[in-house]
Design goal:
mainly alpha, two-stranded antiparallel sheet, 3 helices
C-alpha cells in the first residue's frame, strides 16, 4: 500500500502504458501544486468492507466486489463536478 503523508497529494500519470505515478517518484507536496482541477470526472467512495486485493485471487475478488457494488461506491455528487 502507498500511504500519502499529510500535506501531500498522490499524482497519477496521464499515459497509462508509458508514464509513472507517485508510487515511482513519491507524493507531491501541496505547496508545489500551482493549478486547480477543471472538472472531477469520477468520484469513488471508500468502503471498509471491500477486499484488500492482494495477489491474483484478491484482485479478482476486489474486481467482482467493485462490479457488484458500483452504484453504492460511486460518489454521484462529484460526478462531472466543476470546482469553483
Amino acid at each position: 500500500p502507498f500511504v500519502v503523508p499529510p500535506g501531500h497529494i498522490f499524482v497519477m500519470g496521464d499515459n497509462r502504458d508509458y508514464s509513472s505515478d507517485s508510487r515511482a517518484w513519491g507524493a507531491v507536496p501541496l505547496n508545489m501544486i500551482k493549478a486547480k482541477p477543471r472538472i472531477v470526472y469520477f468520484g469513488w467512495k471508500d468502503d471498509p468492507y471491500a477486499p484488500e486485493g492482494d495477489g491474483f485471487v484478491g484482485k479478482a475478488q476486489l474486481l467482482f466486489y467493485n462490479i457488484t457494488h458500483v452504484f453504492s461506491r460511486m460518489n454521484l455528487s462529484r460526478l462531472g463536478h466543476i470546482p469553483e
